[in-house]
TrEMBL record:
Residues 2-123 form the VOC domain. This is VOC domain-containing protein. It holds the Pfam family Glyoxalase. Signal peptide: none annotated. SUPFAM superfamilies: Glyoxalase/Bleomycin resistance protein/Dihydroxybiphenyl dioxygenase. It comes from the Bacteria.
Length: 126
């Protein structure tokens, strides 16, 4: 098997608000969109993100009403402090401000209007 890219798909109530949040604060752009669907991409190696609207018929019937929950989309960054400052300047208050874990990870969490959680992380040099 050869994997050519990676995509995370999440189901939300309001696709445009999640795609706008990702574009405005994380540099994604809309690659494809239709009613109830948006595919988001960056020009680097970040994972693509697809938003599906609740009830979208392309989803298996048992998943059509399941909203994003318990999923965290994580991005590893070079300067976590600068990213927290940037997000706050853009009006995004972290849902979890920077914290340091004993295993060497520093992270912060932000949450979009649909409850999609994004983690920004950096790791201590080994």
């Amino acid at each position: 098997m050869r994997i050519t890219s990676s995509v995370v798909c999440v189901t939300v109530d309001d696709v445009p608000s999640s795609s706008k949040f990702l574009a405005d604060h994380f540099g994604y752009r809309e690659r494809m969109a239709a009613d109830g669907f948006a595919s988001m991409r960056r020009d680097d190696d970040a994972v693509d993100v697809v938003f599906h609207a609740v009830g979208l018929e392309v989803l298996p019937p048992e998943l059509r009403q399941v909203r994003v929950a318990g999923t965290i989309i994580a991005f590893v960054v070079d300067d976590l402090d600068a990213e927290q400052d940037r997000l706050r300047a853009e009006g995004v208050e972290p849902s979890l401000p920077i914290r340091e874990e004993p295993w060497g990870e520093r992270l912060l969490l932000v949450t979009d209007p649909n409850g999609v959680v994004y983690e920004l992380a950096e790791f201590a040099e080994q």
